[in-house]
From TrEMBL:
<dbReference type="InterPro" id="IPR011128">
    <property type="entry name" value="G3P_DH_NAD-dep_N"/>
</dbReference>
<dbReference type="Pfam" id="PF07479">
    <property type="entry name" value="NAD_Gly3P_dh_C"/>
</dbReference>
<dbReference type="InterPro" id="IPR006109">
    <property type="entry name" value="G3P_DH_NAD-dep_C"/>
</dbReference>
<dbReference type="InterPro" id="IPR017751">
    <property type="entry name" value="G3P_DH_NAD-dep_euk"/>
</dbReference>
<feature type="binding site">
    <location>
        <position position="283"/>
    </location>
    <ligand>
        <name>NAD(+)</name>
    </ligand>
</feature>
<dbReference type="GO" id="GO:0005975">
    <property type="term" value="P:carbohydrate metabolic process"/>
</dbReference>
<comment type="similarity">
    <text>Belongs to the NAD-dependent glycerol-3-phosphate dehydrogenase family.</text>
</comment>
<dbReference type="Pfam" id="PF01210">
    <property type="entry name" value="NAD_Gly3P_dh_N"/>
</dbReference>
<protein>
    <recommendedName>
        <fullName>Glycerol-3-phosphate dehydrogenase [NAD(+)]</fullName>
        <ecNumber>1.1.1.8</ecNumber>
    </recommendedName>
</protein>
<feature type="binding site">
    <location>
        <position position="111"/>
    </location>
    <ligand>
        <name>NAD(+)</name>
    </ligand>
</feature>
<keyword id="KW-0560">Oxidoreductase</keyword>
<feature type="binding site">
    <location>
        <position position="312"/>
    </location>
    <ligand>
        <name>NAD(+)</name>
    </ligand>
</feature>
<feature type="binding site">
    <location>
        <position position="134"/>
    </location>
    <ligand>
        <name>substrate</name>
    </ligand>
</feature>
<dbReference type="GO" id="GO:0141152">
    <property type="term" value="F:glycerol-3-phosphate dehydrogenase (NAD+) activity"/>
</dbReference>
<feature type="binding site">
    <location>
        <position position="314"/>
    </location>
    <ligand>
        <name>NAD(+)</name>
    </ligand>
</feature>
<feature type="domain" description="Glycerol-3-phosphate dehydrogenase NAD-dependent C-terminal">
    <location>
        <begin position="208"/>
        <end position="355"/>
    </location>
</feature>
<dbReference type="InterPro" id="IPR006168">
    <property type="entry name" value="G3P_DH_NAD-dep"/>
</dbReference>
Length: 369
């Protein structure tokens, strides 16, 4: 009898879910903090949250992962915020994921394919994933959403979480909302909602993975356009017009790619709310403003390195990827704003073209959207 009792904690512990966060940038660190505050409270999760750190040496000569574990702070990507003592930084990717059955992917999108390849065949059989990554990949055979890459490479199901989520504001515990997109299994979606939801981070779920993910991805292109308007000091009406045209293109593009995308998704946090916050206060907007102020004479790469100090822009690369899709599918004329953003980013057009081309071509392409 006594042996049965002594086994109980073992079985209890085996049934608990373990979470790994793959990524430790600005949002990655905040996501780990949110999750870690919940795993301490929720009995169905192990307390510890393992956070994979893309290792780097700080100016002090110390390794970033070691400093995070000593100070409980990501001094480079989220300075001044304690992550929670149960967040463990791990520079070894395979080791970070090996014991976890709930994998949270949150790195800049350009690194995701390589990361998936590295952990292929090295994760738990019962693992499930969620992607917080805003972006997509474009291959010869067309665009692939990051959640699809995760599912295909790792052979596991993948939800997405997107929303009006400027990480530094969530780190301060200011109220915000987010949307989980799921494919079929509402139960799994609710488990993710449970893991992220807090009194200041209100999460809901919708059955529309592609819609939610495309909102998060495409709003970064519109944010670049909004930044150009700010840099040119064209005022709020112009910026609102660009945001409206951008939202229209986001919806049309998403629905052309996936007929399953739902109109209502654009009214969730991942849609219009994320578009607003990113066009007001995001990094894409900020760098695009500087680009326009310099008349396009300084490249985005240069501005990103100088202004973001290691953090990564997603909008410029996404504009290029969207442009490739538009070219391949013969849709260029229907998406003047998306097309113009890319042309400005590669300095084929001046920043002022954002209004001229978007507005002019918009008149002519309206019917096809
Ligand atoms: N920061 C935000 O406010 C925010 C909010 C919501 C969603 N997102 C999205 O979350 C994703 C991650 O953004 P973030 O803000 O956490 O990151 P970040 O831009 O702050 O930091 C860049 C990260 O990339 C890592 N990195 C650099 N080179 C790498 C490589 N070769 N391989 C792997 N990793 C490398 C760095 O170590 C760092 O962790 C992006 O898709 C972003 O759009 C960001
Ligand atoms: O700072 P940005 O432009 O990468 O945007 C951050 C978030 O995506 C806003 O939800």
């Amino acid at each position: 009898m006594s042996s049965v009792f002594s086994m109980a904690p073992f079985f209890e512990s085996e049934n608990k879910s373990r979470v790994a966060v793959i990524g430790s940038g600005n949002w990655g660190s905040v996501a780990a903090k949110l999750i870690a505050s919940n795993t301490l409270k929720l009995p169905s999760f192990h307390d510890e949250v393992r956070m994979w750190v893309f290792e780097e040496t700080l100016p002090s000569g110390k390794k970033l992962s070691a400093v995070i574990n000593q100070t409980n702070e990501n001094v480079k990507y989220l300075p001044g915020i304690k992550l929670g003592k149960n967040v463990v930084a791990d520079p070894d990717l395979e080791h970070a994921v090996t014991d976890s059955n709930m994998l949270v992917f949150v790195t800049p999108h350009q690194f995701m394919e390589g990361i998936c390849k590295r952990i292929q065949g090295k994760i738990r059989k019962d693992a499930q994933a969620i992607s917080l990554v805003k972006g997509m990949e474009v291959k010869r055979d067309g665009p692939s959403m990051i959640s699809t890459i995760i599912s295909q490479k790792l052979g596991i199901s993948c939800c997405v979480l997107m929303g009006a989520n400027i990480a530094n504001e969530i780190a301060q515990e200011n109220f915000s909302e987010a949307t989980v997109g799921y494919r079929e299994n509402k139960e799994i979606a609710e488990k993710w909602v449970h893991l992220f939801n807090t009194p200041f981070f209100s999460v809901s779920s919708v059955q529309d993975v592609e819609g939610v993910e495309l909102c998060g991805t495409l709003k970064n292109v519109v944010a670049i356009a909004a930044g150009f308007v700010d840099g040119l000091e064209m005022g709020n009406n112009t910026k609102a017009a660009i945001m409206r045209i951008g939202l229209r293109e986001m919806k049309a593009f998403s629905k052309l790619l996936f007929s399953s995308v739902k109109d209502n998704t654009f009214f969730e946090s991942c849609g219009v709310a994320d578009l607003i916050t990113t066009c007001l206060g995001g990094r894409n907007r900020k760098c695009a403003e500087a680009f326009a102020k310099h008349g396009g004479k300084r490249s985005f790469d240069e501005l990103e390195a100088e202004m973001l100090q290691g953090q990564k822009l997603q909008g410029v690369l996404t504009a290029k990827e969207v442009h490739e899709v538009l070219c391949h599918r013969g849709w260029l004329e229907s998406f003047p704003l998306f097309a113009t953003v890319h042309e400005i980013c590669i300095r084929r057009l001046p920043p002022a073209a954002i209004v001229k081309y978007s507005e002019h071509t918009h008149q002519h392409s309206r019917a096809s959207l």
